[in-house]
Design a protein that fits this description.
Elements lengths: L1 H5 L1 E2 L16 H13 L4 H8 L7 H10 L21 E3 L27 H6 L6 E5 L10 H9 L3 E5 L17 H4 L1 H8 L7 E6 L2 H11 L4 E7 L10 H5 L11 E8 L2 E8 L9 E4 L10 E3 L5 H4 L6 H8 L5 E2 L1 H4 L14 E6 L7 H10 L4 E5 L6 H4 L1 H12 L7
Parallel strand pairs: 1-9, 3-4, 3-5, 5-6, 6-12, 12-13
Antiparallel strand pairs: 2-13, 7-8, 9-10, 10-11
Helix pairs in contact: 2-4, 6-16
InterPro entries: AB_hydrolase_1, AB_hydrolase_fold, MES/HNL
Organism: Populus deltoides (Eastern poplar)
Pfam families: Abhydrolase_6
């Protein structure tokens, strides 16, 4: 997302799109038709689907992605043992207590040291919640979390992945999204439906960081912990564009050219730059309301996905993304958030850095961490911008470890 915005060209051709046009990616359109059939699978057949290797054929992987769209109807509760996280963990200067610091040793834990070896051990632990809500980044959809959902559910968690408005298989046209509230409405609806006293662990990736921040301000009592994965972790008064426009500061060999366009009372800043030798071709704005009005969406050049976002991911996952990603709505990217210490600031935040990220550079991630210190910082070595593809097991272990951090110690 960072480089996609960094390489935007204001000369992109206007895309003629009807606001009533679904504009679904072909693969996801087929998923929607197959979801009804999937809901009729027997329990034993579901287990066979879960057993499909991540290294199988692309159609098998696509089926695994489709399974998440009906995961609300199935909850087998199957579980597999797994070790504690071996990722490096660092305390944050913003942590209220220093007792949260974990060892950065990569020594494997013994079986007796593992806190979780069976699903009933997870359920019986004094966890504030075992429900996880996963929020995708710009251009992505709920489909990107299919590995994470499978791993979490096998460990005894209840995992939900949401399609934000105009994303994944959501029916809305991306060009019709006017603000962040409209974009995150499917996520907000989840919280409106939560029972009294129910809480979730809220996880956001990329632009999803701004989305979960917005919801944290609205529903602080319903969120036990918030996790930012290579995400826009904003300070109050910032927009996601404010973060992405800083990319040039961490690529000194390239210059940043900013152009300001004033539409009514709103100033929209766009940039055209070569942040990296890998990312030189411009992205394109969609002007569904005409060139005299603000852009409505950003089209991603899918030929650049491998080098920018998925440089450590498998060919099959890149293929899945290339046929599933949709344009990014523009209005949510430029909207500035007002975040209060009583609401947003009352929720423990955890940041997961992606060390091999070519889209949201590590120095930029560290800059956000310094400006808006979270409770704790984790690190995924060898991960690109999409750890749910490139490092699913390591990401899973960190999410489980975060779920076990006692609230009394935060």
């Amino acid at each position: 997302m960072g480089n996609a915005l960094g390489c935007i060209s204001t000369e992109g051709a206007r895309e003629k799109t009807s606001k009533h046009e679904l504009n679904l990616p072909p693969l996801l359109a087929s998923f929607k038709g197959r979801a009804g059939l999937l809901s009729s699978l027997s329990s034993s057949e579901n287990k066979k689907k879960k057993a499909v290797s991540f290294d199988g054929q692309l159609d098998e992987q696509a089926l695994a992605a489709a399974l998440l769209f009906n995961h609300h109807q199935r909850n087998n509760g199957n579980s597999l043992p797994f070790p504690r996280s071996q990722s490096a963990v660092y305390p944050s200067s913003g942590s209220k207590k220093h007792g949260l610091t974990r060892s950065s040793s990569s020594r494997p834990r013994s079986h007796s040291e593992s806190l979780l070896t069976r699903p009933d051990q997870l359920v019986n632990q004094d966890l504030e919640t075992n429900r996880v809500v996963l929020v995708h980044g710009g251009g992505f959809g709920a489909w990107c979390w299919y590995k994470t959902i499978s791993l979490l559910e096998e460990a005894g968690f209840k995992a939900d992945a949401v399609d934000l408005t105009g994303s994944g298989i959501h029916y809305s046209d991306t060009n019709g999204i006017r603000n962040l509230a409209e974009y995150v409405k499917p996520l907000s609806d989840i919280f409106y439906k939560l029972g009294e006293g129910d809480k979730v662990i809220l996880v956001g990736h990329d632009l999803g960081g701004a989305c979960i921040s917005y919801v944290m301000e609205l529903f602080p009592s319903k969120i036990a912990k918030a996790v930012f994965i290579a995400a826009t972790m904003l300070s109050s008064g910032q927009s996601a564009l404010d973060i992405f426009s800083q990319q040039a500061l961490f690529s000194p060999s390239h210059s940043l050219t900013l152009e300001a366009y004033k539409f009514s009372s709103q100033v929209i800043c766009t940039s055209q730059t070569g942040f990296s030798d890998l990312i030189r071709q411009p992205q394109t704005f969609i002007y569904a309301n005409g060139k005299d009005n603000p852009p409505t969406a950003i089209v991603i050049d899918k030929t650049l996905l491998r080098d920018s976002w998925f440089n450590q991911s498998s060919t099959k996952d890149v293929a899945l993304a290339s046929v599933s990603m949709r344009p990014i709505p523009f209005a949510p990217v430029v909207e500035k958030l007002l975040l209060s210490s009583n609401n947003y600031g009352s929720i423990p935040r955890f940041y997961i850095k992606t060390r091999g990220d070519c889209a949201l550079h590590v120095p930029l991630q560290e800059s956000m961490i310094k400006s808006n210190p979270p409770t704790q910082v984790f690190e995924l070595k060898g991960s690109d911008h999409a750890p749910f593809f490139s490092k699913p097991q390591a990401l899973h272990r960190i999410l489980v470890e975060i779920s076990q951090v006692p609230s009394k110690d935060i």
